[in-house]
Design brief:
410 residues; alpha/beta; seven-stranded mixed beta sheet; 45% helix
């Protein structure tokens, strides 16, 4: 036995606590993707047509980027609105510029959607919110639910490292398959979700937050017996064009969710806390494995510790594996991504760790690139493909069964 006062015992306790935090988060993810995901139906026929939807695209003033998004909205959607901070020219949509004198509790993006809620008419059953860089794909209608989340699949914009991190993140997001069994879905992606207009009108957006999409779904879950559904359409949005842009994006995500976690019931908060810690400090998981093998006799149970920590490390590679499956990468490319998993883990966590250590208080728009840049950087696209894209179809590879043979583009 090891005396409780020895340094080895202190180290052992700290190691087991760290493993417990990471292990709980990983175990919960496995439950979501297996047990809770049971019953999800990806091929459900739409119950509401395109004419039952008003599309609202949010931007500051990125006219070229917004035009790409407007062009991707299916022709069956008759009512497309752009909510902008400044007046811009966009074909195929009605542009609403938020007046400078408008004030409310919400700021930035939240302020814009709150103004639109008050001043933009909507007779449709649903409002579909898109980010300025969202390229709609596979959109033919909506299931009958209160909140419909579309899955995402960030497209390559020139930075191989951020694209790698997005593949890793998309793999982790397979947990969304289980969100329909949770009273409080654990987050929302604001780049592609639809909500019943009646619910949105009652809730409003006038709250102080920098992650307004997740904030909205948590408030909706608290106020209603919310019917949530996931549509695996893989809307295309832009991967951050640089590491710096990605770090700032992840910092904002982490800062906003930590700030808003008071909206969750008490029994959800330990779950959410372990997820936050596991995301931000996941680069330390390999150190747990190393410690278990370098200190085999420091305390009882270290052999078991080594086994558990190695399994936890393997789950990080599982996230990447699911990511390449979501991206339809050819199996011959899988070893490349798996080998790069440690790098993806570190880079993906850096911004989140920054958000915990130095939270940001203001909304920062992630840098976007022009459509021409996306067409140039991706071998599966030619000049003019984005403008000609019909949002009812896939963006590249007509068949879902076709593999992508490019490592860092589509």
């Amino acid at each position: 036995m090891v005396d409780a006062a020895t340094p080895q015992a202190v180290v052992a306790v700290l190691l087991w606590v760290a493993l417990g935090v990471y292990g709980f988060s990983a175990l919960w993810w496995l439950v979501e993707t297996t047990v809770l995901a049971y019953g999800w139906r990806p091929s459900e026929e739409p119950k509401w047509g395109l004419d039952d939807v008003q599309v609202r695209i949010l931007t500051v003033d990125a006219a070229a980027v917004v035009q790409q998004t407007v062009d991707s909205v299916p022709d069956g959607v008759a009512d497309v609105r752009v909510i902008a901070e400044r007046d811009i020219d966009v074909d195929g949509a009605t542009v609403h510029a938020v007046p400078d004198e408008f004030t409310c509790t919400a700021t930035n993006k939240g302020r814009a959607v709150e103004w639109a809620l008050r001043h933009v008419d909507c007779d449709a059953e649903y409002v579909l919110y898109l980010d300025e860089d969202t390229i709609v794909t596979g959109f033919t209608g909506l299931p009958d639910a209160d909140f419909i989340q579309f899955t995402e699949k960030p497209i390559y914009t020139g930075s191989r490292l951020t694209y790698l991190c997005e593949v890793f993140r998309v793999g982790y997001q397979f947990e969304q398959l289980g969100f329909h069994r949770l009273r409080y879905p654990l987050y929302a992606w604001g780049g592609g979700f639809a909500i019943r207009h009646g619910i949105e009108a009652e809730l409003g957006w006038d709250v102080a937050t920098i992650t307004e999409d997740t904030n909205l779904i948590w408030r909706a879950a608290s106020a209603y017996d919310l019917d949530y559904q996931l549509v695996d359409a893989r809307f295309r949005n832009q991967a951050p064009p640089s590491l710096w842009a990605m770090f700032r994006q992840r910092r904002r995500w982490m800062s906003g969710t930590v700030r808003d976690d008071n909206l969750l019931p008490l029994h959800y908060r330990p779950l959410y806390l372990t997820r936050i810690v596991a995301w931000a400090f996941s680069p330390f998981v390999p150190l747990l494995v190393v410690a278990s093998y370098l200190l085999p006799g420091t305390a009882p149970g270290m052999a078991l510790y080594g086994l558990l920590s190695t399994g936890l490390l393997a789950i990080l590679f599982l996230y990447t594996l699911l990511g390449v499956v979501a991206y339809s990468k050819h199996p011959l490319l899988w070893p490349v991504f798996l080998a790069l998993t440690p790098l993806a883990v570190v880079l993906h966590a850096a911004g989140a760790m920054w958000g915990i250590l130095r939270p940001v208080e203001t909304f920062e728009v992630t840098e976007k690139v022009a459509p021409e840049t996306i067409e140039r950087e991706n071998t599966g696209l030619a000049e003019g493909d984005l403008q000609a894209h019909d949002g009812t179809e896939r963006l590249v590879r007509e068949s879902e069964d076709a593999f992508d043979t490019s490592v860092f583009d589509d």
